[in-house]
Amino acid sequence: MKLVSWNINGIRAVVGRTFLQQFAEIDADIFCLQETKAQDDQVAEALASLKDYHIYSNSADKKGYSGVAIISKKAPLSVTRNINIPDHDMEGRVIAAEFDDFILVNVYVPNSGEGLKRLEYRAEWDAAFTSYLESLRQRKNVIVTGDFNVAHQAIDLARPKENYNKTSGYTQVEIDGMSTLLHKGFVDSYRELYPQKVQYSFWSVRFGARAKNLGWRIDYFLVDERMKGQIKDAEILDQELGSDHCPIVLTLK
User: What is the pTM of this model?
Assistant: First the structure.
């Protein structure tokens, strides 16, 4: 089974470029999107040509902001949205699809913002989201994917010293939030297979960062440790263009 996750930074924008061709070429069983920046009806309209897929989305109350979607060849047993906490749910950041063997959670984790102005909110989010995942794991194995807006280790960003505790995505608060989540029964599939490999999934649009490969690995497939033996491969498709992020892939045995 091939699962793909991609922060596309606007579904209507990427569909207007090469997304549909890339989607067909990547040919995943399940495709998770973050930052659709569209309401549910707009997501459905943008992806209307994908006739053989089941499409589910969750949009923010605020138009043109946040939003996640799951595109699946096989219909899930059920689909749920949000984590049942109104203060968090208004931003349309979580959608979960239950399949026979696992629950797949697609998440767009809040950015701590310029000047770290949302760092306190981010810590609250991390705790609430971790608790939500713990409750799901009591029912079934869980795979979590998406844009987590944190580089977990120094190897996961090009300039760790310059950014540590200064830049959103690499503060100790955010690092600890990810560590806590992992300790609740998840493995970072990419690091599990490639502990020393340097590859990034996001590059700032400023300063020619992508051309210089001054990037961050902030997009993840976290796999339930009870499924660790089923991880066949984890990839970062860093040659795929169209967004400030690139797609990531999890292949299960």
Answer: 0.97
